[in-house]
Write a structure and sequence with these properties.
Helices cover about 0% and strands about 45% of the residues. It has a 7-stranded antiparallel β-sheet with strand order 1-2-3-4-9-12-11, with no helix packed on it. Strand 2 (about 30-35) and strand 3 (about 40-45) form a beta hairpin. It is mostly beta strands and about 200 residues long.
Length: about 200
Amino acid sequence: MNSQTDPTGPTTTSVPVPHRLSPEGAGPAVEFTWQGDRYTHVLRDNNDASTPCCASLEGGADDDWPSSAAIQQLSTEVIDGKTTILGVGCCGTSHFSVSVQYDVSEDASSPSLRFDWAARLSKPLAPGEVKGAENDDANAWLGSSYREETGSDSVNDTPANFRFDAIGEALINTDSSNAGIQIQPRQMAEVRTVQWSYRVQLRSA
C-alpha cells in the first residue's frame, strides 16, 4: 500500500491547480497560479509571447490589508454561456471573492477581461481608518495592484501593453509608490461589503 492510500504513511501537500482563460484569437489571457498561501495572476498577450506580461502584486500572510485581494480557492465554471473563473479567500478579518470572464463589445478589436471583486469586512471602517491621499498614515486599503514584468529590478513599471478601464465607481491610480497601477473602490468607509470592477484590454499598436 502506497502513501497515497495508506492513512498511516507520509502525507504530501498538493499544490492547488492553475486556472487560465485565453481567447480564441488576439486578446489578453490570464493565468492564476499558486504562490505561497494564495493565488497570484498574470496577464499576457495571447498571440505574442514576447510582449511583457502584467503581474498582480500580492501581499503576505502577515498583511491585514494586502496589495491585492487574497484568493485561496478557485474554480472554472460556465455561467450564462461564458467560461468564468470564480474565487474566494480571506486575509486579516476580510473575506474576498472574484469573478473573471471575457467581455466582448461591438466596438472593441479584441475581447477584454472583466474582473469583479468584492470584500466583506468584519465591521464597517471609519473614514479616518481608510488610507488615502489625505490620510496616508491609515492602514486600511482594498483594491487590485499590478506591475509590468520586464525582467528588470524595477517594481514601479506601469503596464504599457494593457489598458485598464474602471467600471462603475472604481478608481484607477497610476501614481502608486509600490505598484505600477492600482484599481480601488471609491467607497470603503461605513460599509461592510466593498466592490470594485474593471476591464483589461490589449493596447492598440
